Every structure is written in C-alpha cells, then in structure tokens.
Automatic annotation (TrEMBL):
It comes from the Eukaryota. This is At1g61320/AtMIF1 LRR domain-containing protein. It holds the Pfam family LRR_At1g61320_AtMIF1. Residues 71-240 form the At1g61320/AtMIF1 LRR domain. Signal peptide: none annotated.
C-alpha cells in the first residue's frame, strides 16, 4: 500500500514538472494529495530578482522547510539577481546546504550580480550522485563569480557527466583538479572561464563526447590547449577573442604529432584561430571524418581559401575579411554552405550537391556592378538561397543598370527564399533605389524581411520602395526600371501576425515612415 501511495505522488509530481512554476503551484488547491505532492516536489526552481514576484524570503522559507522535513531535492535551479553583498552571502549559504544533499542530481545556477561578488562554496561538488552542474554568470561585471576550491570536496567522481561554467573565474589548478577527479565526464563547456590560463588540459576522459571552450585572451602570451586520450570526442568548439590581436594560430597538442585522440570528431567549430593554409592542413590531417565545420576567419591572412574534404556536409565561414577574394571548396557531399563577412568572394564548388546557400554581409564599401555579377554567379550554386545584407554606413552604390543588364549571363534567380535587409545611419536612401533596381536584376526573392534603419527608426528603405514603385507607381531618376512589371502581387505581415494581407493603400502608414520601428515581411509573387 505504501508503494502505491508513493506511485501516486510521483505521478502528480511528474505532471507538475511539465507545467510552469505558477501553474504547478496552482495544482496545490485541487486536493490535499496535490498539496502534498507540490510541497515535497523534488525539483526546485526559483527565479528571484528585479520585477519578479518571488523574493529572497520565499527561497529561504522553502529551503528551511525542506531541510527541517528532510525532503529530498533532486534538481535545484536558481536564477537570481544579486544586488548587494548581503544577498550574495545568503545565496552562498543556500547553495552550500543544497549541494551536500546526497540525492541531488542536477544543480543549475544563473547569477546576475550588480556590484557584488559571489564565491561558489567548496561543497558545490559534494553530492555523490550529482550528474550535471551548470553555473552561468552574464559578463556585466567580469570576475564577479569565483570558484576557488580552496578546500575542495569532490564526491561526484563516479556520477558527474556534464560540467558547464560560463563567466565563472576559476583557477587553473581548481579546474584541472576537477577534471582529474571526474573521469566519466561526457560534456564540458568552459565559456569565458579560462582567462589567464597558461594551459588548458583535457586529458584521460574516456567518455567525453562534447567539448566547448571560449575565452578572451587578456595577455600577450598564447594559452596552450592540451587534449589527449579522449577517444569518443565527437563535438569540439574552440573560440578565442584576442584582445591584443596577436593572431596566435591554433595549436592543439598532440594534433601536430598525429595523435588519433581526436580523429573521431565530426562537428568542429573554431573561432578566430585560423590564419593560413597551415591551419587548414592541420584540420585536414587531424579531423578526417568531419561532417560539420565552422571557422571564424577574422585573422585570415591570405586572399585565397581552398579547402578539400570528402566527408563535409555543412561548412560555415564567418567573419570573412574583405581581403579574401577567392574561395574554392572541393566537397562532393556538401549540402549546406553558410558565409558571413564584409563582402562576397568569388565562390567555386567544382563538385558538390549543394542544397542550401546562406550569405550574410555587413557592407561598408562601395557597391558596384562586380558585386551584383558576383552575387548572381553565387546564387547559381545552390537549390535554395537565403541572403542577409546590412549596410553599416550610408549606402554608396555606383551602378549603371543598363550596363549591368548587358553583362549578366543569366536571368534573375528564383531560388532566393528570403532576403533580410537593413541600413545604418542612412537618412535619405528612400529618395532613390539603385541598390534594389540592380538587385532585382539578379534575383527575385520570395520573401523580404525589411528592418528599419538601425539609427533612424522612421526610415525603412524597402518599405518606401514598395510605396513608391508598387503602390504609387512613380518613375525613378536612375533610368527605366523593369522589376515592378514582373510583380504579380505583394503581401505583407508583421512578424507576430499569422496572416498575410494583400498590400494596399491601407498599409500606407507602415510604408511611409509614419510608424517608427516597423519590422515587416513582404511576400513577393513574381511572374
């Protein structure tokens, strides 16, 4: 009979766990059984801070009751805004008590500190059944959350599977002590928690599958990354923001000695550490079975980028510099290619089955005919394309539309699924439309997401364009424009609306700038 009662409580708590905190609390009025289930709920979630209904005293009262009644806590999730040192000390005490619960399996802390510092208790890893620990501290005030581990109590050596530290200042010795003790880790995330390290050592972790590391290099000396004996590693990301712009290339020990430790990695993400062909050769030899590759090319030194892979299906290149003019990828299995940067280099995919091309450009230079000709060639490489174009300074377009038409080798592409467009600090762009007059010569996008100017929120060039060219049918001063004649009809909707509406004069206030901060989707139906 006792087991049956427990089963009912577990069923009720299972239902409560699928509800929001407010909805789950409301179930306590249904009956005494529901009240008992809620009052002994083993998964505690608290969201405390500015503008929140829950206060520090509510957390204190709940934890005192759980401690008094010896009620199990399996999961502890705390999101808290800490405004003073007294609140920080109080939260430290709560976490220390909860962390010693032998039944605790997961602990998640999201700490937002305003003018206070917070030290994670040494008992943070004291539960012998702890599977997952997540500590996140947004970098409003760097180095405000500390994990010193002066007298560490690590009892989860055989249970810990996931370790996530974000914005937590941990010493090099403390981190290596944790990794040396907890050999069964499967996922490690160290995000902005390794600043100032001489060496990051990831060694002898036979079950590790995913490893994510990012940090800001605050010193002129590079941080070494030593990885060995991680035979199951399948996902690896490494991002380093170099404050001094020393451009240290990626060095992973012992990849340069041809170790097989990381050869099973299938998803690789490297940010701002790839500089030249030597780095690419390291990737080819060290990671032969890649399916997905993401590279940040902020410090790429060469004008060409040539890459060959027999296994890659998804390739992402972001932060491409304007000096990169030629990009060739030999990848017969490539399905998705995603590129972002200052301009679009010449693209070549000699052998591929590309299905999706995504291009995101933050343009700061003069746009001429070569830009549109190059873009049209790129659009012919894939079945579907998405474009995101932002002008980070007042738009400078120097284009002869008639000359562009004579130089184009193909009709307008019809495979552009979505175009996202925005300007920055452009005050008078709606008075003329050379960019879109040329753009619609190379493609007819199905959907356009028009954002207002980043600084002048009354200005939305594409909205003004639709008003003048489609509704008012006015002529331009740049020559004869043909593209409005190929539009059957235009539909419009705001992002939160579910229904498309035919563009009519009733939408004039959205288009002429009378309504600021208007974000609109346009569905374009072409002949």
């Amino acid at each position: 009979m006792r087991r049956e009662v427990e089963d009912v409580v577990e069923l009720m708590q299972n239902i409560q766990s699928r509800l929001t905190v407010k909805e789950a609390a409301q179930t306590s009025v249904l009956s005494k059984s529901w009240l008992h289930a809620w009052s002994t709920f083993p998964n505690l979630r608290f969201d405390v801070g500015r503008g929140k209904s829950m206060k520090l005293v509510d957390v204190e009262r709940t934890l005192v009751r759980y401690h008094r009644d010896n009620t199990p806590i399996k999961k502890f999730d705390l999101k808290i805004d800490i405004e003073n040192q007294e609140s920080a000390s109080q939260a430290e005490k709560w976490i220390g008590h909860v962390a010693t619960k032998t039944c605790l399996k997961e602990i998640s802390l999201s700490l937002l500190l305003w003018g206070a510092s917070f030290r994670l208790p040494d008992e943070i890893l004291a539960s012998e059944n702890l599977n997952k620990i997540r500590v996140s501290a947004p970098r409003i005030h760097p180095n405000s959350v500390w994990m010193t581990m002066t007298n560490p109590v690590i009892k989860c050596v055989s249970s810990l599977r996931e370790l996530h530290l974000e914005g937590v200042s941990i010493s090099e010795e403390a981190l290596h002590h944790i990794l040396l003790s907890c050999r069964l880790l499967e996922k490690i995330e160290l995000l902005h928690s390794c600043e100032g390290f001489k060496t990051i050592k990831i060694k002898n972790l036979p079950r590790l599958y995913e490893l994510n590391i990012s940090f800001v290099s605050l010193y002129e000396n590079s941080t070494a990354l030593e990885i060995s004996d991680v035979p199951k590693l399948g996902v690896f990301s490494y991002y380093r923001l170099d404050v001094f712009q020393s451009h240290f290339p990626l060095v992973i020990e012992p990849l340069n000695s041809h170790s097989i430790s990381m050869r099973k990695v299938r998803r690789l993400m490297l940010g701002d550490v790839i500089t030249d062909n030597t780095c690419l050769d390291m990737i080819k030899s060290g990671f032969p079975f890649l399916v997905s590759l993401t590279l940040g090319l902020t410090y790429w030194k060469l004008g060409t980028f040539h890459f060959t892979s027999s296994s890659i299906k998804r390739l992402v290149l972001h932060s491409c510099p304007h000096t990169l003019i030629d990009l060739q990828v030999h990848a017969p299995k490539l399905l998705i290619f995603d590129l972002s940067g200052e301009t679009l280099p010449s693209l070549s995919f000699p052998v591929s089955s590309l299905k999706q091309l995504r291009v995101s450009l933050g343009i700061e230079r003069l746009v001429d005919a070569s830009f549109f000709l190059n873009m049209r060639e790129a659009l012919s490489l894939s079945h579907k394309c998405d474009l995101d174009i932002q002008f980070n300074s007042p738009l400078d377009v120097n284009i002869d539309i008639d000359d562009l038409r004579t130089r184009l080798m193909f009709p307008p592409a019809t495979n552009v699924q979505e175009l996202r467009f925005q300007t920055t600090e452009d005050e008078c762009m709606w008075e003329q439309s050379p960019f879109f007059d040329a753009f619609f010569e190379i493609c007819h996008p199905k959907c356009v997401y028009a954002k207002p100017d980043d600084h002048f929120n009354h200005n939305n060039h594409f909205c003004r364009l639709m008003l003048r060219e489609v509704l008012e049918k006015k002529t331009t001063t740049t020559g004869i424009v043909y593209w409005p004649h190929y539009l059957k009809h235009v539909q419009i909707k705001q992002p939160l609306d579910q229904k498309w509406e035919t563009l009519t004069n009733s939408h004039r206030s959205f288009l002429d700038g009378s309504t600021p901060d208007v974000y609109l989707y346009f569905n374009l139906n072409w002949c």
